[in-house]
Amino acid sequence: MEIPMKTTLSLLFAAALSLTSMPAHAVKWDLSTMTCKQFLESGEDNIAVVLTWMDGWYKGDEDNAIIDTEVFIENAKKFGAYCAKNPTVSVVTAADEILGK
Question: Membrane-crossing residues (predicted)?
Answer without folding.
Answer: none
